[in-house]
Design goal:
By secondary structure, this protein is mostly beta strands. It has no helices and eight strands. It has a six-stranded antiparallel β-barrel with strand order 1-2-7-6-3-8. A two-stranded antiparallel sheet has the order 4-5. A hairpin with an 8-residue loop joins strand 4 and strand 5.
């Protein structure tokens, strides 16, 4: 079964690739989620200060192979299973980040906490709550 997605927008940031943290929880990087015009009405009811979950495509990751099922994370010495780490080299190159909304202007959401590169395709945006 093939599953196909189309971007609803793209990440925009002036931060260079090597300065973008590899995990949103430790990031203070700001940028913009720029949606395609037809998705702008979907931003209704989002609020500044709210957290949102952004699903995105790791568009620069290499094709996945079974040799990547175990990888050595940056700050570890031993291989870990792919589903226990946050590597962009995944069976399906889908990422998830939680960011803080700092502004909303038209079809652009200013956010803080980016761990995505400039030009990253956005697949979906969902509200986020840390309540269980």
């Amino acid at each position: 079964m093939d599953i196909c997605f189309s971007p609803i927008g793209w990440v925009r940031t002036d931060v260079t690739d090597d300065a973008v943290p590899h995990f949103y929880a430790v990031s203070g990087v700001e940028g913009t989620l720029e949606l395609l015009p037809e998705f702008a009405p979907g931003l209704a009811d989002l609020k500044i200060g709210q957290q949102i979950a952004v699903l995105f495509h790791f568009h620069r990751s290499p094709p996945f192979s079974k040799t990547m099922l175990k990888q050595v994370p940056r700050k570890r010495k031993e291989p870990r299973g792919i589903f226990s780490i946050c590597s962009p080299k995944r069976p399906n190159a889908i990422g998830l980040s939680v960011v803080d909304i700092i502004s909303i202007t038209g079809r652009r959401i200013g956010v803080k906490g980016l761990d995505m590169l400039d030009g990253t395709p956005i697949l979906d945006i969902k509200p986020h709550s840390s309540n269980k």
